[in-house]
Amino acid sequence: MFYGVKGTCKKYQSTWTTNALFAATYNLWAAKIPLIEQNRDAQTIETTGVTTDKKGKRAVMTEKTLFMSNRLQSFGNTTGNAEILESVQYPASYLNKARDTDVIGICNAVLSRAVANATALTAYGVTAAMITDLQASITAYSATLAKPKNAKAQTKTATENLTKLFKEAEDLLVKRMDLDIELFKVSKPDFYSQYKTSRIIISTGGKATALLGNVTAAENGEPLKNVTFTFAPESNGMLKSASAVAVDTMVKKSAEKGNFRIPSMPEGTYTVTVKKVGYKPQVVTVNVANGETTNLKIEMEKN
C-alpha cells in the first residue's frame, strides 16, 4: 500500500508540490520508506550460516581435544600418573553436550596438560604442531561464540525499528495526508481519486503471505521440536487498515527438525511468545508483509 501511495504522489507531484502543507507531510512520510526497507532487510538476516560455522569449529576443536586426551591417557597409564588420568578423561558425549563456556574450559585443561608434557608426549605421537593446532582450534571456536547472538540482536533491533517506523508512517497518512488530500477533491479530481484508491488495502485472505520458522538450542545449534510459538497481532496502523481480514492469535509448534510453517497470515506486526519446558521463554516481534515470505529464527537457552 505504501508503494501505491508513493507512486500516485510521484505521478501527480506537479499538482501538490506548490501546496506547502501537503508537500511537507509527504516529504516526512516518504523519508520513512527507505528506513523501512533497510530494517526489513536487516530483519531477515540469515543467521544459519553463523550457527553452522560455530558448529563446524566446535567439531574441529572437540576432535583435536579428544585425540590429545587419548594420548595423555596413554601417557598417564604408562607412567602411572594418576593426576593426569583424572584430569583428561572426558568422553566424546560429554564434550558434545557441554555448554559453550564449559567445553572451552575442558579443552583448555587438556591443552594445558599437553603443553606441560610436550616433550614426553613426542613418544606418544604428539608433535608441537598438533599442540599448536589444538590451541588455534580453541581460539577459533571461542571467536564464534558471540556471532549468533550478535546476529539475533541485529534482527531484534530491526524488528523493533520496523514496528516504530510503520506506526509513524501510518500516523502521517491517517492523521495528515488522508485529511489534506481533500484540498484536491474538486480542483484535481484524478489525483484525489487515485490517492484514495492507493490507500485501499486489498485483502488476499492471507494466501499471498507466509512465515517460515526455525528454532535451535543455543548451546549446540541442534534443532528443537515441540517449541510453542504464539503469534498475537499488535494494534498498529497496518492491522487496523486491514480490517477486512480477521486477525486472531495463532499457535504453532516446531516439528522434528525445529521447523514450522504458516502458509497464510494477514500482514502486520505480531508479538511472538516462544516457550518450551526446560528452556528460557522468549518474546520477540516480527513483521509480516503482504506477498513476502518472512523468516523467523530463534535460539533458545536452557534454564
Q: How does the SSE layout of this entry go?
A:
Elements: H1 2-11, H2 13-16, H3 20-30, H4 32-43, H5 48-79, H6 82-88, H7 92-97, H8 100-116, H9 118-121, H10 128-144, H11 147-180, H12 189-198, E1 210-217, E2 228-233, H13 237-241, E3 250-253, E4 259-262, E5 268-275, E6 282-288, E7 293-300
What would you note in describing this structure?
This protein is an alpha+beta fold and 303 residues long. Among the domains are: 49-145, no CATH class; 204-303, Sandwich (Immunoglobulin-like), CATH 2.60.40.1120. 56% of the residues lie in helices and 15% in strands. The chain has 13 helices and seven strands. It has helices at residues 2-11, 13-16, 20-30, 32-43, 48-79, 82-88, 92-97, 100-116, 118-121, 128-144, 147-180, 189-198, 237-241; strands spanning 210-217, 228-233, 250-253, 259-262, 268-275, 282-288, 293-300. Strands 3-2-5-6 form a four-stranded antiparallel β-sheet. Strands 4-1-7 form a three-stranded mixed β-sheet, with no helix packed on it. A hairpin with a 6-residue loop joins strand 5 (268-275) and strand 6 (282-288). Helix 3 (20-30) packs antiparallel against helix 11, helix 4 runs antiparallel to helix 11 (147-180) and helix 5 (48-79) runs antiparallel to helix 6. The chain is elongated. 28% of the residues are buried. The model is unreliable at 202-208 and 236-246 (pLDDT under 50).
